[in-house]
Amino acid sequence: QDSKSLDTYIQSTLSALYPPFEATAATVLWQLFNIVDKLYQGDGLRCLIDFLVPAKRALQCVQRETCAKYTGLIFYHEGWPLCIHEKVVIQLASLHRVRLKPGDFYLQIAPAGKQLAKLVLKCLSRCGQGMEEVAIPEAMYGGVFTAAFLEKLNCERENSPLKSCLLTTGSSVYRTPWKNIINPIFI
Fold first, then answer.
1. Which InterPro entries did the record assign (predicted)?
2. Is the pLDDT assigned to residue 114 strictly greater than 90?
């Protein structure tokens, strides 16, 4: 009974964040199960309390603040900016097996301690060796999906500008120009 209600809560949370859920379910559930196994030793309830609930608050904040400037418009992709139909934009888990190229980056909501989650941008380090993680302050959540956000990061990066955001669908990865992600389509 308890595991059934846990599953129901997880699915309802993810379906609200990543619609249409029938298209994104395989990707986000796989990523969440990965987190449960690797970070919480299979303890789904602890993952829910320590990661998914705070992640939900942070993702709702990103979505609410990003979409506020489009009040009255109907998005063609109802899950934007967290997903674009079946393609997940803000990942729940690290993309460990993906080989990043110069200019590639991805967004992730990551565990940040007990009952905390943070939005991060991950990319190749400036020297090209290893991964760099850039924490995005909560005060900037509403400005992430803008050209100015990436321009500000690129000012600090000099010789290795970021330009392609990685989106995922199942095990497939799509390199997408940032301008294609930050400009939503409306009905």
1. Rho_GEF_signaling-related
2. no
